[in-house]
Design goal:
ArAA_b-elim_lyase/Thr_aldolase; Low specificity L-threonine aldolase; pyridoxal phosphate
Length: 339
């Protein structure tokens, strides 16, 4: 069965697998003291053109929860939009692990703006209420939209003016960088982001994410949070080796470009059918569309994808680094042949 459920359903790029095999030769130091991890940290620092702290973990949830917990005290809170992954898809992990609260506002096309955060600032100094400390955004957002560089910079400046930090959930950050035709430095380092969950799993890696702190003073205790969070891998080189291959020869860019291009091609083909209405302009590799119920049923006989809302027949289709036009054409052919 073909899958358009998520880019998590894709396989692993051959270069990533080769890097894992290469890292398997001989012995090396454990717990991130190996030469492979040191090289991976250096390459990530070069990518962002900044001296940064990097902490490798296995999953995106771990990156978000451990990173955010490292900046929060139990009486402090994270402000995000209602669709944020930390709010919807992480089973309350942040609140359980950190003891801190999530404060959320209705999303505006997947995004949050400084005007949305202002309503929580009245609680500053009030011991009866959680203290807002971090603004968290997702890039790409959970509804497939993108923050512009100016929007990110505006949020960062607002956060810093109010003694807060800006965190970015970058599970699909490579797709965003490609879509906006920019660089990691311009999007993250130069805008003032304090903390990044740097994802690779959705873009061709087997597993592994990186918590990146752009202020080493803030992350001085992150190693303890990672250990308590059960994410200090003894054989960490098998995660860091993937990041070396991922960054080498811009593999991240090649993978994200294909995923985005296939998303655009998919949306263009879908838009030709009056029975299908695209919800948003497709900017990366996620397509949201309303389809007639009988068409959804017919398509799901051959393809797996999410139905997000049964009432409005809203579906989500996601392309991956290894999606081909032939995969999409098969999907389109079923629509064409469904009366």
């Amino acid at each position: 069965m073909k899958m358009f459920m998520s880019d998590n359903n894709s396989g692993v790029h051959s270069s990533i697998l080769e890097a894992i095999v290469k890292a398997n030769v001989g012995h090396d130091y454990a717990y991130g003291n190996d030469t492979t991890t040191k090289e991976a940290v250096e390459r990530i620092s070069q990518l962002f053109c900044k001296d940064i702290d990097v902490y490798f973990v296995t999953t995106g949830t771990a990156a978000n929860v451990i990173g955010l917990s490292g900046l929060l005290r139990p009486f402090e809170a994270v402000v995000c939009c209602d669709t944020a992954h930390i709010n919807v898809d992480e089973c309350g992990a942040l609140e359980k692990f950190s003891g801190s609260k999530i404060l959320y506002v209705p999303n505006r096309n997947g995004k949050i703006y400084k005007e949305d955060v202002k309503e929580f600032l009245h609680s500053l100094g009030d011991e009866h209420q959680s203290q807002p400390k971090i603004i968290s955004i997702s890039q790409t957002t959970e509804v497939g939209t993108l923050y512009s560089i100016e929007e990110i910079k505006d949020l960062a400046e607002f956060a810093h003016e109010n003694n807060m930090f800006l965190h970015m959930d970058g599970a699909r950050i490579a797709n965003a960088v490609v879509a906006l035709n920019t660089t990691f430095k311009e999007m993250i380092s130069d805008t003032g982001v304090d903390l990044l969950s740097f994802g690779g799993t959705k873009n061709g890696m087997m597993m592994g994410e990186a918590i990146i702190s752009f202020n080493k003073q803030l992350s001085s205790n992150f190693k303890f949070f990672r250990k308590q969070g059960m994410q200090l891998l003894s054989k960490m080189r098998f995660i860091s080796a993937q990041f070396i291959a991922y960054l080498e020869n811009d593999l991240w860019k090649e993978n994200a470009t294909n995923a985005n291009n296939m998303g655009k091609y998919f949306s263009e083909e879908l838009s030709k059918f009056p029975r299908i209405t695209l919800k948003n302009n497709v900017e990366t590799n996620m397509i949201f569309a309303h389809m007639e119920k009988d068409l959804i049923k017919r398509l799901q006989e051959k393809f797996d994808f999410y139905v997000l809302d049964d009432k409005t027949n809203l579906v989500r289709l996601v392309t991956s680094f290894d999606t081909t036009k032939e995969d999409i054409d098969e999907f389109i052919e079923v629509i064409r042949n469904t009366k």
